[in-house]
Design a protein that fits this description.
Layout (H helix, E strand, L loop, with lengths): L16 E2 L10 E15 L2 H13 L4 H24 L4 E12 L3 E13 L5
Parallel strand pairs: 1-3
Antiparallel strand pairs: 2-4, 3-4
Protein name: UPF0145 protein SCA03_52890
InterPro entries: UPF0145_dom_sf, UPF0145_YbjQ-like
Family: Belongs to the UPF0145 family.
Length: about 120
């Protein structure tokens, strides 16, 4: 498996800047739109669960589950970006993830942050 399967971040959709920082160097926030989020819940794959059970006995990374979580996080970010775009933002500041179990049927991933409109670059 390549590292691309376990990575994250923006995927060529450059109209909305997503950062984990509270500000963007060289840019000023002109308008705060407010909190936005992207949410997804994924059920567990039976094959991954069986593999995870075996790995838990012998040790090692649960690659199937790692890949599923990376894909789930990416989907949550894409939904976050869609929300920002629909509300007229051009950036999301202080983006974070929250991951939790959803009633023992899957994993809930929420990407959230503050939608803003940035001013032109300074300088």
């Amino acid at each position: 498996m390549s590292t691309d399967e376990f990575g994250g971040g923006q995927t060529g959709r450059d109209d909305i800047l997503v950062v984990t920082t509270n500000e963007v160097p060289g840019r000023e926030v002109q308008r705060v739109i407010g909190e936005i989020f992207g949410l997804t819940v994924r059920s567990r794959n039976l094959g991954s669960q069986i593999g995870a059970g075996i790995k838990s006995v012998f040790g090692g990374e649960l690659r199937g589950l790692t890949k599923t979580l990376a894909e789930t996080r990416q989907q949550a970010v894409e939904r976050l970006i869609d929300q920002a775009r629909e509300r007229g933002a051009d950036a999301v500041l202080a983006m974070r993830y929250e991951v939790s179990q959803a009633e023992d049927i899957g994993t809930e991933v929420c990407a959230y942050g503050t939608a803003v409109v940035l001013g032109p670059p300074r300088g």
